[in-house]
């Protein structure tokens, strides 16, 4: 079954510049929660890639069957996209997105130059 993405919950790419920011939203969130920050960062001369984690921004039934590995894989695709555009990359994650940003930085340290975490879920 295919689920439609709610309007405003789409992934996004904004801005241009040598420094890029990967934005990863939290659990049950969507790129709608990170877009205002992304727009502001782009207005400051940064490139931005806002990912939509699978199962988010669609329907609760879609989310029920998703796995953490899918979310990490999608964030990795976002990291690939922003890394192709920028020489310096910072990963920003909110809540569970912070945990995903940490996992990316741990598994790909040569590609994540910095981290910004808001309420990361860490134990």
Explain this structure to me?
By secondary structure, this protein is of the alpha/beta class. Helices cover 36% and strands 20% of the residues. It contains four helices and five strands; from the N terminus they run E-E-H-E-H-H-E-H-E. It has helices at 35-43, 60-64, 68-85, 96-107; strands at 12-14, 19-24, 47-50, 88-94, 114-118. Strands 1-3-2-4-5 form a five-stranded mixed beta sheet, sandwiched between helices. Helix 3 crosses helix 4 (96-107). The protein is globular, with a radius of gyration of 13 Å.
Summary keywords:
globular; alpha/beta; 123 residues; five-stranded mixed sheet; single chain; 4 helices
Low-pLDDT stretches are: none
Q: Using DSSP, what is the number of strands?
A: 5
The pLDDT mean sits at 96
Give the termini distance in whole angstroms.
34 Å
What's this model, at a glance?
By secondary structure, the chain is an alpha/beta fold.
What's the topology here?
Elements: E1 12-14, E2 19-24, H1 35-43, E3 47-50, H2 60-64, H3 68-85, E4 88-94, H4 96-107, E5 114-118
Parallel strand pairs: 2-3, 2-4, 4-5
Antiparallel strand pairs: 1-3
């Amino acid at each position: 079954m295919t689920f439609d993405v709610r309007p405003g919950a789409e992934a996004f790419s904004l801005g241009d510049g040598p420094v890029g920011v990967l934005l990863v939203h939290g659990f049950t969130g969507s790129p709608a929660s990170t877009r205002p920050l992304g727009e502001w960062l782009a207005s400051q001369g940064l490139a931005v890639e806002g990912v939509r984690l699978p199962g988010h921004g669609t329907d609760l039934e879609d989310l029920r069957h998703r796995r953490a590995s899918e979310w990490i894989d999608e964030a990795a695709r976002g990291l690939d996209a922003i890394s192709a555009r920028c020489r310096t990359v910072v990963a920003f994650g909110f809540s569970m997105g912070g945990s995903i940003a940490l996992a990316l930085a741990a598994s790909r340290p040569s590609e994540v130059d910095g981290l910004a975490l808001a309420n990361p879920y860490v134990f």
